[in-house]
Write a structure and sequence with these properties.
With 306 residues, this protein is an alpha+beta fold. It has one domain. Helix content is 22%, strand content 28%. β5 and β6 form a beta hairpin. α1 packs across α3 and α1 packs across α5.
């Protein structure tokens, strides 16, 4: 019996850190060794990287989206989807189950779970924010968990009370969801990376769509934690904010958008969601591995020649 709950899922402290980074979209403040200082470090850590889905994956995504559209939300039915993201679980018979709701702590071994995110969304065809545009394209994206080497430079300036961070990453290998058996040791690296992924994917899964209830009243629904983080400002989600009774609508020029939408887009720098997901995952990793909850702090004598 797992009395330590080591294999019961993501600990609350990890979820809290992921939530904090996702809400601001930046590396969290790191305690500097000195007021004016700088250092470089290199370490292994997880990163989530997105790619275009294969033709067979696209077919399955369309199937899962249709199942989602056919499932009512209370008394409302979804008429149009602007975004649907889920974590696929693969059955022994080759079937796929879409997990699109936030998952709380609980054992998952033996469920065919994966360290993947499948996204289907409909951005506008033109990224020029000053153009009024109505044409959209359907995007199919798969985001996967990788092991990567991080090379990071951190610097602090006491006069401006600022922190500067720059980093590069080098990917090595995909990290699959652990498949434990009673007679073999557990792969603790896979478990640790998968815990990261579960906390991270909880920021992304869900849907944005246009609904109609039984009385004919139409309304938009953001059924995803994405409404509380930086990804909401992505250019990939602009179509949702044009939905109205005559769905779908056309994107307004940036200057004519609501103040709140302009703020969201400025925070996300109007980037696509696949770009934001990769950057956010790296910022989460760096923040975790420089947080006092996950690091050991000790004194060290340093000899220097002046």
């Amino acid at each position: 019996m797992d009395t330590t709950r080591r294999f019961s899922g993501v600990r609350s402290e990890l979820s809290l850190l992921v939530n904090q980074v996702a809400s601001i979209g930046e590396i969290l403040s790191v305690e500097p060794p000195y007021a004016d200082s700088a250092y470089s470090s290199m370490f292994l850590g997880p990163i989530v990287v997105c790619r275009s889905a294969s033709p067979s994956e696209q077919v399955e995504m369309d199937h899962q989206l249709q199942l989602h559209l056919e499932t009512p939300l209370g008394s409302s039915k979804e008429l149009k989807s602007a975004y649907y993201a889920f974590c696929p679980a693969f059955g022994s018979d080759g079937g796929v189950t879409a997990h699109w709701e936030v998952r709380n702590q609980g054992p998952m071994n033996g469920t065919g779970a994966s360290n993947q995110l499948w996204l289907i969304y409909t951005p506008f065809a033109d990224d020029d924010l000053e153009n009024r545009i109505c044409d959209t394209v359907t995007k199919y994206t798969v985001c996967e968990l990788w092991n990567a080497t991080y090379s990071i430079d951190l610097a602090w300036n006491s006069s401006t009370r600022s922190q500067r961070a720059s980093y590069t990453t080098e990917r090595h290998n995909l990290v699959e969801f652990p498949d434990d058996h009673s007679k073999t040791p557990s792969d603790m690296v896979k478990h640790a990376y998968s815990a990261f992924f579960l906390a991270f994917r909880n920021q992304i899964i869900g849907s944005l769509g246009w609904y109609e209830d039984e009385t004919g009243y139409q309304h938009g629904v953001i059924d995803s934690p994405i409404q509380q983080n930086i990804l909401l400002g992505s250019s990939s989600l602009d179509q949702y904010f044009t939905f109205n009774k005559n769905t779908p609508g056309c994107r307004l020029p940036f200057s004519e958008m609501s103040l709140q939408r302009r703020r969201d887009k400025n925070l996300a720098a109007n980037r696509t969601i696949d770009m934001l997901i990769e950057e956010l995952s790296a910022n989460v990793t760096i923040s975790i591995l420089h947080n006092e909850l996950y690091t050991y702090v000790y004194s060290q004598n340093i000899l220097a020649s002046l």
